[in-house]
UniProtKB/TrEMBL annotation:
Enzyme Commission number(s): 4.6.1.17
A matching Pfam family: MoaC
PANTHER family: CYCLIC PYRANOPTERIN MONOPHOSPHATE SYNTHASE, MOLYBDOPTERIN COFACTOR SYNTHESIS PROTEIN A
Family: Belongs to the MoaC family.
Residues binding substrate, per UniProt: L75, C76, H77, M113, E114
Catalysed reaction, written as an equation: (8S)-3',8-cyclo-7,8-dihydroguanosine 5'-triphosphate = cyclic pyranopterin phosphate + diphosphate
Organism the protein comes from: Peptostreptococcus equinus
Name under which the protein is recorded: Cyclic pyranopterin monophosphate synthase
Domain of life: Bacteria
Keyword entries, A-Z: Lyase, Molybdenum cofactor biosynthesis
Length: 157
């Protein structure tokens, strides 16, 4: 069998046993963006969407998504998150909104999946709230930027 940790010696899917690992402070940051039409971008920026505050709702959705990662990804551990933060930056030239999700815990396993889930749910919420104006939006470049803690230490893109 390969070096994949989520399979036993017979190739069956397993949840990794982390009971012998040390608890450490763990943090992960994931980013992604959504590109949209100029009209849609301006409505989001100016708060002119009929469904309400797009970025405010997307922020809460991203936080909720990070907290529910273990319910969505079958082999993820249930984690007690100590921090979930969503930040936005708006690119007026490209009509693109970038979201960054930072997740932190003290635990035996990392929070990369929680950060990636949080940013994806955030971007999907923006799409959902804006699709009446622009069905052609594109979710782009979702990726892990940094993770700290655990045996492997710091990893940075």
């Amino acid at each position: 069998m390969s070096n994949f940790t989520h399979f036993d010696k017979n190739g069956n899917a397993i949840m990794v046993d982390v009971s012998e690992k040390n608890e450490t402070v763990r943090e992960a940051i994931a980013i992604g963006s959504i590109k949209m039409s100029k009209e849609c971008f301006l409505k989001v920026k100016e708060g002119g969407m009929k469904k309400g505050d797009v970025l405010g709702v997307a922020r809460v959705a991203g936080i909720m998504g990070a907290k529910k990662t273990s319910e969505l990804i079958p082999l993820c551990h249930i984690l007690n998150l100590s921090k979930v933060e969503i930040d936005f930056s708006l690119d007026e030239v490209e009509c693109k909104i970038e979201a960054a999700c930072t997740v932190k815990t003290v635990g035996k396993t990392g929070v990369e999946m929680e950060a990636l889930t949080g940013v994806n749910i955030c971007l999907l919420t923006i799409y959902d709230m804006c699709k009446a104006i622009d069905k052609g939006m594109e979710i782009l470049e979702v990726k892990l930027m940094k993770k700290t803690g655990g045996k492997s230490g710091v990893w940075e893109r």
